[in-house]
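Lab channel / #folding
Pinned by the channel admin:
"Please post every new chain as: sequence first, then the structure tokens as a reply. Keep commentary short and put observations after the output so the thread stays searchable."

First post following the new format, from NK:
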Amino acid sequence: MEKNIIYFEKKGVSNTNRTIEAARKRAEELGIKDVVVASSHGGTALKVAEAFQKMKENIVAITISSSFGEEGWVMTEEERKKLIVKGIRVLTCLHSLGDNVSSAFIEKNGGTSIEEVVRETLYRFSQGMKVCVEIVMMAADAGLIDVDKEVIAIAGTGEGADTAVVVKPSYPRKFQSLEIREIIAKPRIP
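Reply from TO:
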């Protein structure tokens, strides 16, 4: 099989529409019915819902956990309600690749966790690649997607979306069975 990959010259929000459109097209080609999207305040998830509206997809928006409130990254209740009204399932939970109890000990005492090694490895592709893998595991762990079916994951660098992949998901505790099967789009320079 031969497929094109979109490589963006710049990372970030300016690539959102093109990333979502490429993801929608690939979902149609593969018959994928589950889309997992990172969305701090709901904007990207709403764009995904609009692009996929005719396909009757299971759209799962993953938000950042409440521990990031000081940074202003936490979804408000009003933002959450806008997504739910559109049929988007919203999940807020602990990150599967860090920001957990081991992160607290590492911050205080130094060292490196396995999650940090995986996270840093995925960052070599792009921030969006790390987030795509992470949100798929979070959605699987919450029972919002089936680990036996391919999904589309959409994420980005900071705001918006610049990365989309086809993933065979897994639970965090079964990480070795996760497969990144296709890269649809990503920034050329991480």
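NK: The beta strands are 6-8, 34-38, 58-63, 89-92, 151-155, 163-168, 179-187.
TO: also worth noting, The chain has a mean pLDDT of 93.
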